[in-house]
Design a protein that fits this description.
The protein is an alpha+beta fold and 152 residues long. The protein has 4 helices and 6 strands, in the order H-E-E-H-H-E-E-E-E-H. The radius of gyration is 15 Å and the shape is globular. The chain starts with a helix and ends with a helix.
Length: 152
């Protein structure tokens, strides 16, 4: 089933904001509990502290989690760009799942090494807001991006 125009527009809007390096987010896209997951690991588990720590949850979930994630990625790849492929939707307005692929491109901070990686994405919606975003990419590409993020 093709994604509804509203879901597609929301995904496209987030991609456009990322590519414009804007941290402004429209109201209602994320709840305070929206969870971000990379290669099966929730972001709050990646920070080296208790994933239940209120500060960690505040940084890694909701609009703050989006901003934290986008800034880290844009630091690693200063010229980072996202493009969306076809997406599919299942479910209804109360609970929907949108699946597809994005292409992440750019150059690594410091080394200038080009990056062109396919990212499988799943967005879980509840009542029109994103409840969870899962991104899956080649683990070696994720490691290289992480190393670039650590460069000054």
């Amino acid at each position: 089933m093709a994604a509804s125009e509203g879901m597609t527009a929301l995904v496209d809007q987030l991609i456009d904001l990322f590519n414009a390096r804007s941290m402004d987010l429209p109201d209602g896209h994320f709840t305070r509990q929206t969870r971000f997951v990379l290669n099966g690991v929730p972001f709050e588990e990646m920070l080296g502290r208790s994933p239940g720590d209120p500060l960690i949850l505040m940084l890694t979930r909701g609009p703050a989690g989006y901003r934290f994630t986008a800034k880290a990625l844009q630091h690693a790849l200063p010229d980072a760009r996202l493009q969306r492929g076809d997406i599919e939707e299942s479910g209804d307005a109360g609970a929907a799942l949108v699946k597809g692929q994005c292409w992440l491109s750019g150059h690594m901070r410091g080394a200038g090494e080009p990056v062109d990686v396919v990212v499988d994405v799943e967005l879980r919606f509840r009542n029109g807001s994103i409840e969870r975003i899962d991104a899956t990419l080649d683990p070696s590409a994720a490691d290289r991006i992480q190393q670039a993020r650590l460069r000054a």
